[in-house]
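Researcher: Sequence recovery benchmark, item below. Answer with residues only.
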């Protein structure tokens, strides 16, 4: 089958569920559209669950059990797949991010994952473990995801990455002084790359700051655009240009209002030296 994605069941519970669903479907010789028709959903939905981009809901898993005659096995397996460290829409977003020609991101509070050092990423993740927000196994999944996402930036052709980070990202000390110093060095190094732009949105922007939540905008190889935004408990992947276009416009306004890359790097260097 053309463009059939290989599945790694050891990647996550959602991947194991997806592989099981695909195996059962293949055994019956059904296409994704045919299975979707039997379950009351689309073939696209089936594809998203099989590849781990969308976790199976309880209703979806129960419907699959009914169609395949598997009792409640898929429903019980689906419970584990839904207990994931990712917000809805994030796995699918990461797939698109790995193919994007241009990545525009805004973050506040913490340095964005694509720019984090391993030590900074571990400090953030283990903080979530200590709060009971995620398990240690889920923390491992998060750290592996950060590594994979950063590695994808080394592909050819290299994507253009525009990063605007709120001033809080560089002033909030994570992991202690040593970890934070190395993280600031990483930001300076990131800004020196030929395919990146780094800007700091200073506190002084006040109400002129275009976003109050983290946002990432992707330009795909076919020049289409996607937007991914998230809060503490919800993620949303948006394709409809009626909603994506205003976010692109707002991002351009944010770039104009934020400090230039030269001024941003100077601020980071001063902060690193302890002179701010």
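Model:
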């Amino acid at each position: 089958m053309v463009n059939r994605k290989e599945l790694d069941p050891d990647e996550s519970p959602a991947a194991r569920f997806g592989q099981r669903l695909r195996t059962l479907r293949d055994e019956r010789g059904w296409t994704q559209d045919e299975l979707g028709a039997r379950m009351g959903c689309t073939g696209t939905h089936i594809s998203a669950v099989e590849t781990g981009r969308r976790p199976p809901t309880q209703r979806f898993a129960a419907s699959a059990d009914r169609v395949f005659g598997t009792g409640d096995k898929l429903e019980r397996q689906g419970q584990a797949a839904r207990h994931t460290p990712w917000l809805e829409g994030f796995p699918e977003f990461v797939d698109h991010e790995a193919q994007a020609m241009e990545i525009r991101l805004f973050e506040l509070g913490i340095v964005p994952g694509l720019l984090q050092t391993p030590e900074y990423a571990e400090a953030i993740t283990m903080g979530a473990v200590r709060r009971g927000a995620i398990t240690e196994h889920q923390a491992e999944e998060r750290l592996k995801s950060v590594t994979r996402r950063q590695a994808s930036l080394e592909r050819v052709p290299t994507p253009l990455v525009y990063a605007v980070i709120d001033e809080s990202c560089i002033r909030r000390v994570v992991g202690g002084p040593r970890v934070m110093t190395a993280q600031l060095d990483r930001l300076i190094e990131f800004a020196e790359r030929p395919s990146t732009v780094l800007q700091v949105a200073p506190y002084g922007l006040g109400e002129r700051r275009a976003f109050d939540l983290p946002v990432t905008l992707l330009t795909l190889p076919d020049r289409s655009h996607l937007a991914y935004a998230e809060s503490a408990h919800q993620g949303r992947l948006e394709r409809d240009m009626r909603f994506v276009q205003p976010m692109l416009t707002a991002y351009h306004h944010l770039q104009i209002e934020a400090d230039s890359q030269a001024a941003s790097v100077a601020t980071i260097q001063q902060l690193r030296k302890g002179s701010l």
